[in-house]
Each structure stands twice: as structure tokens, then as C-alpha cells.
UniProtKB/TrEMBL annotation:
Protein's recorded name: Methyltransferase domain-containing protein
Protein's GO biological process: methylation
A UniProt-annotated Pfam family: Methyltransf_23
InterPro entries hit by this protein: SAM-dependent_MTases_sf
């Protein structure tokens, strides 16, 4: 049998891109790195780093709908688009380093959630950017009433069809969700959304006043980001269109009605295990 053919990488052109402004200040950014057809820019007012020009929404959707988008990263080979796994391959995948790391994060984040709430699992939990549904499935097994939102059709189909989860495919603002969630999680999601301020404002409308938000993102003030510049492995200008620091996270969340209460940056913490350039944040709604 012939070996599978790996498709060539997508080449984006200026026609696939659009120019945007800072979501906080409404002004253009100043160029930091020219990665044509993309630009890495920094807002001269608030310091938020973002991509402009960046992919248009329709080009971004093509990227996320690629069946290979989740493969080879933190998901390793642990999940296939079709969802079917034979016994031998399933046993092999359990020991895939990427999948072991994924399970470490999941356990660490569920434990962090229990600590910041000060009580055992229970209530309504929404995950935005649910991927294949691995975290959401673990949260459901821990006792949560779960819902999810995922832009990738491949990821959403696996979460719903294989794992039987309630996951809406699309943007958070379009999801048919009612308010009153006890927890909202957004793991490696906010750097992808078209407008983070709109995203967090929508999240605020869904989270109960005594609820809690947990999220993770790469951060551009990390040591790898500062040392490596354009060689930073998490720069990814096609998909990571916003780059934050703890300060810009706090500014953005405050504008949307949240207070950033905790930031976990240590790669030794289970919720952030092995991540030298990412953080986990905890935020709570500001009383209306």
C-alpha cells in the first residue's frame, strides 16, 4: 500500500487578509514584525499586540475546517477526525506524550477550578473552544453539566458524534445559550477570536454573578517570545491573531466586566505543565 500523501502547506496571499485595529483603543498598531502577508503590530496606546493584516473570516474558517488542524499538536495522534479507534491503536495513543500532557492539563485545570471555587464539582460549565471535547468530556465525568462551543467543524463533529457532548459549531456570540453558567473555560481560545473584547463581553452575559472564568493563552512577554522574536514557535500569525500579557489581559477583562484574580505562569503547575510561554488565568465577574 502506498504511503499517504501529505498536502503542501497553504500559501496565503494579501487577498486572503484584512487590516484591523486595536480592539481596546480602536487605532492601528505599529509594525513589530513583517511576516508578509501578515503583520505583527503593537497598539501605541495600550500595548496590545495583534496581527494586522490578518486572515479574513472566510479564510480562517478554511484553516479550522482542515481535518489536520488539530493533529500533531497537543492532541498528537490521539484523536482522529472520524472518531473510530481500534484497540491496538487506542492503547498506543494513551501513551502518546502529547496526549499525556493533555490529560495532565485537564486534571490540573479541573483541580484548579475546584480550588478557586472552594467546593466540589457541580453546576453548569461552558467551554469555548472545545476542540475534540476532551476537557469537556472529563468535566462531565467529574460531575458538571456541560456545554461547548467550537469553531472547527471537524472538532465539533467529534465532540458531538463520538463523545455525545452538547457542542455548538460556530462563534460564541451565535451560540443558543442561556445565562447563568457557573463556570466558563476558554483554553487557548482568546488568541483566535475576531474581537477579544466582544468575546469577553458575551462571556460576561453568560456567566453568573458568582461564577468564575478560567482561560489559557500564550503570552508575548514570556521569555521564549522575547528571545526568539519571529522564530517564537507560538507566534503563528495565521491563527494566533491576538498576543497578550498579564497586563493587557487585565485591561481587556476589566473593560468587559471581569476582574483578573490569578495568573499561573509556572511550567511546573499541573494546569500549565511544560508550558514556558503560556499562562492560565482566573477571572471573576465584577458586580453589576
Amino acid at each position: 500500500m502506498s504511503a499517504p500523501v501529505t498536502p503542501p502547506p497553504v500559501t496565503w496571499t494579501p487577498e486572503d487578509t484584512e487590516v484591523v485595529e486595536c480592539c481596546l483603543c480602536g487605532i492601528p498598531g505599529r509594525l513589530v514584525h513583517d511576516l508578509a502577508p501578515f503583520g505583527v503590530v503593537r497598539c501605541p496606546s495600550c500595548g496590545l499586540v495583534f496581527i494586522s493584516p490578518r486572515l479574513r473570516p472566510e479564510a480562517l474558517q478554511r484553516l479550522y475546517d482542515d481535518v489536520g488542524y488539530f493533529e500533531g499538536g497537543v492532541y498528537g495522534g490521539g484523536v482522529e477526525a472520524g472518531g473510530a479507534e481500534d484497540g491496538a491503536s487506542s492503547r498506543d495513543r494513551r501513551f502518546d506524550p502529547a496526549m499525556l500532557l493533555q490529560r495532565t492539563w485537564t486534571a490540573g485545570r479541573l483541580a484548579l477550578l475546584d480550588r478557586v471555587r472552594g467546593r466540589s464539582p457541580g453546576g453548569r460549565l461552558l467551554e469555548v473552544g472545545a476542540g475534540y471535547g476532551l476537557f469537556l468530556d472529563a468535566a462531565r465525568r467529574a460531575g458538571w453539566d456541560t456545554s461547548g462551543v467550537e469553531l472547527s467543524r471537524t472538532g465539533a463533529e467529534h465532540a458531538t458524534g463520538t463523545l455525545g457532548l452538547d457542542v455548538f459549531c460556530g462563534q460564541l456570540a451565535d451560540a443558543p445559550l442561556g445565562p447563568g453558567f457557573d463556570v466558563l473555560c476558554a483554553w487557548d481560545t482568546v488568541e483566535h477570536v475576531p474581537d477579544p473584547l466582544d468575546f469577553w463581553r458575551t462571556a460576561r452575559s453568560l456567566v453568573a454573578d458568582d461564577g468564575v472564568v478560567l482561560f489559557s493563552t500564550p503570552y508575548v512577554s514570556s521569555l521564549p517570545a522575547r528571545l526568539l522574536g519571529t522564530r517564537w514557535w507560538t507566534l503563528k500569525p495565521a491563527e494566533h491573531i491576538w498576543h497578550f500579557t498579564p497586563r493587557t489581559h487585565a485591561m481587556l477583562l476589566a473593560r468587559a466586566g471581569f476582574a483578573l484574580t490569578r495568573v499561573v505562569r509556572s511550567p511546573l503547575a499541573p494546569s500549565n505543565a511544560g508550558r514556558l510561554d503560556s499562562l492560565v488565568g482566573v477571572a471573576r465577574p465584577i458586580p453589576r
